[in-house]
Amino acid sequence: MNDFVARPEHGIAWISGASSGIGRALALKLAGEGYKVAVTARDHEKLAELQSEANELSGSIIVLDGDVTNAEDMEHVLASIEYEHGALALAVFNAGVYLPVHAEELKREDFEQSFAVNLQGVVNCLVPAVRHMKGKGQGQIAFVSSVTGYGGLPTGAAYGATKAALINMAESLKFDLDKMGIRIQLINPGFVDTPATRKNEFPMPSLVSVEEAAAQICAGLKQQSFEITFPKRFTFALKALNLLPYSLYFWLVNRATGWQERPRADRHRPVTPHPAE
Ligand SMILES: NC(=O)c1ccc[n+]([C@@H]2O[C@H](COP(=O)([O-])OP(=O)(O)OC[C@H]3O[C@@H](n4cnc5c(N)ncnc54)[C@H](OP(=O)(O)O)[C@@H]3O)[C@@H](O)[C@H]2O)c1
Q: Which of 213, 117, 104, 214 shows the shortest CA–CA distance to 162?
């Protein structure tokens, strides 16, 4: 058991994927609480805007551009934090993409990109972060996963697979990180209103604002629980659903999402016979 809570006096808080949505709101929230927050994403303009927006806050924003799929970029970001700004105290690995998958139209690239950003991207940040924290014998790390990682859902074959892997990765790492003085947590939000979810074509129950999500995450980072999840009524219901026998699980998810009644994703395409037929 490790109870380290990173406070502003311990050093820098680093957030990946902070140019929009949850990461951006969390950066502003932490800067408002006095943290020096290093923010990483590919869109420099958006990060610079975020930095100006935080001008009046008690903490500050440090812009460190980078692509999480590039391991060298992440090594540079970490080196810049540690050698130019201060010790890395808190790291929130939040960068992620949601690419819906329809089994009727499988595309290899959707899986490759999802795995590269959501999974390998986290590993690329994790390796240098743990190396630096290990030297000091303290630190706090949080993975932004999702309740979609609890069990399979329609369109989640790539996204949900990466989030399930992150849940397992965090659980597995906890055994060793605890002994190293590094506290690891999992952030599993339900639906949050961000540019990523605004394109969803289905109803999103219990949708929360990014400000609410940032407040919940900030509070959770100061508590001892391994998992930070919200809104609790929705996320606990999903967790309970995953304890059911598969036959009941698939029936209930089909019913709740109306998936069975939806037309197939390839219905609009003309059916061309296979040349061999
Ligand atoms: N919104 C929800 O309902 C919800 C629910 C559960 C979990 N989540 C998770 O929360 C996290 C944030 O999602 P969001 O909804 O806030 O999405 P968002 O508004 O689309 O933000 C995604 C962030 O990730 C960054 N990013 C994407 N690819 C990157 C790359 N290769 N390198 C560096 N940064 C990259 C984006 O920045 P650039 O494009 O500038 O690089 C952006 O800042 C994701 O991990 C998502 O899976 C979201």
A: 117
Q: Give 95 Cα–ligand 1 centroid separation in angstroms.
A: 4
CATH of the domain at 231: 3.40.50.720
pTM of the model: 0.95
Number of domains in the chain: 1
> Which residues contact ligand 1 via a Cβ below 6 A?
16-23, 41-43, 46, 67-69, 94-98, 117, 121, 144, 146, 189, 191-192, 194-197
Best residue among 39, 50, 93, 194 to mutate for probing ligand 1, ranked by most atoms within 8 Å of CB:
194
Q: pLDDT tens, 202-222?
A: 778 899 999 999 999 999 999
b/e string for 107-134 if b means 16 or more Cβ within 10 A?
Answer: eeebbeebbbbbbbbbebbbebbbebbe
The rounded Å distance from CA 151 to ligand 1 centre is 20
Measured in whole angstroms, how far is the alpha carbon of residue 11 from the centre of its chain? 22
What are the catalytic residues?
A: 159
Range of the domain at 94: 8-260
Let me know if residue 270 belongs to a domain.
no
CA 132 to chain centroid:
21
